[in-house]
């Protein structure tokens, strides 16, 4: 029989081995946790890079929209306008227009002259209408799109029958479009197209519906809208822009 001292020594050795095994198991668990954390970190880094890429795309898109708006407003300030759109100046003083026939749809898509005839001339805006419209458009030109959209909404609520209503709907849609509020922009542009089919701004309004649908990833709807612009308004600048955008969209879809 082994001496008691040897038996105790053996027990001590077993105890030490058990402690070492526990420590080793703990280290293995720690290593596994570190590996898991590294994998999670790699996944998070990938997500961050993807978000950065998407953010850059949004910034590029917003810059392009601001450039488009600045270009449009610059042409309007100089008295020019895109094809199919009348000029809109900051302080418009166009020559007096002949009275429109009673019941005829409003034809002037630009700001109406601030005539004193008011309600006696169904084709001219009243001074109050003109002032409200000009205030909203001034905010638009200044880049205060929130105030501009509020001004155009208030104008349309207060003066729904105004000859300036088609203009107000168009610029209301633009104020939402440039701030990337595409669903609400579509609603404004569609009201213009539906309620004022004779307006000179309809072709551009319908084009912007297509642009908004592209931004909302509604590819099939956007293609249909752009084709509609080309079919209904051939030869206009809006039709040319629709054709070019449609080509780009189809190339992207093919890829």
Blueprint (SSEs and pairs):
Elements: H1 4-77, H2 127-141, H3 145-158, H4 165-177, H5 182-195, H6 202-215, H7 219-232, H8 237-254
Assign an overall shape: elongated
Helical residue percent? Answer: 55-70%
Quaternary organisation of the protein chains? single chain
Q: Largest sheet at a glance?
A: none
Give me the Rg, rounded. 33 Å
Instruction: Report strand %.
Output: under 5%
Poorly predicted regions: 77-122
Count of β-strands: 0
Mean pLDDT: 74
SSE class: mainly alpha
Number of helices: 8
Summarize this structure briefly.
The chain is mainly α and 255 residues long. It has helices at 4-77, 127-141, 145-158, 165-177, 182-195, 202-215, 219-232, 237-254. Mean pLDDT is 74; it is low at 77-122.
How would you portray this structure in words?
69% of the residues lie in helices and 0% in strands. The chain is mainly α and 255 residues long. Helix 3 (145-158) packs antiparallel against helix 4 (165-177), helix 5 (182-195) packs antiparallel against helix 6 and helix 6 packs parallel to helix 8. The termini are far apart.
Which labels suit this protein?
mainly alpha; 8 helices; about 260 residues
């Amino acid at each position: 029989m082994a001496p008691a001292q040897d038996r105790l020594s053996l027990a001590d050795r077993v105890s030490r081995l058990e402690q070492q095994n526990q420590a080793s198991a703990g280290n293995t668990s720690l290593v596994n946790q570190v590996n898991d954390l590294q994998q999670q970190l790699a996944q998070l880094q990938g997500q961050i890079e993807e978000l950065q890429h998407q953010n850059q795309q949004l910034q590029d898109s917003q810059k392009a929209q601001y450039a488009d708006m600045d270009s449009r407003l610059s042409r309007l300030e100089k008295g020019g306008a895109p094809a199919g759109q009348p000029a809109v100046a900051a302080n418009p003083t166009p020559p007096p227009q002949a009275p429109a026939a009673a019941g005829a749809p409003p034809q002037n898509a630009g700001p109406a002259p601030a005539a004193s005839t008011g309600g006696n001339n169904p084709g001219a805006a009243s001074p109050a209408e003109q002032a409200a419209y000009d205030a909203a458009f001034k905010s638009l030109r200044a880049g205060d799109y929130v105030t501009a959209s509020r001004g155009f909404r208030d104008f349309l609520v207060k003066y729904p029958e105004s000859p300036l209503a088609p203009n107000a709907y168009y610029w209301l849609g633009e104020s939402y479009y440039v701030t990337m509020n595409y669903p609400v922009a579509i609603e404004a542009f569609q009201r213009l197209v539906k309620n004022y089919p004779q307006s000179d701004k309809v072709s551009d309004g319908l084009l912007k519906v297509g642009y908004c649908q592209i931004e909302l990833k509604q590819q099939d709807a956007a293609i249909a809208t752009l084709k509609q612009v080309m079919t209904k308004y051939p030869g206009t600048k809006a039709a040319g822009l629709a054709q070019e955008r449609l080509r780009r969209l189809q190339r992207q879809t093919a890829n």
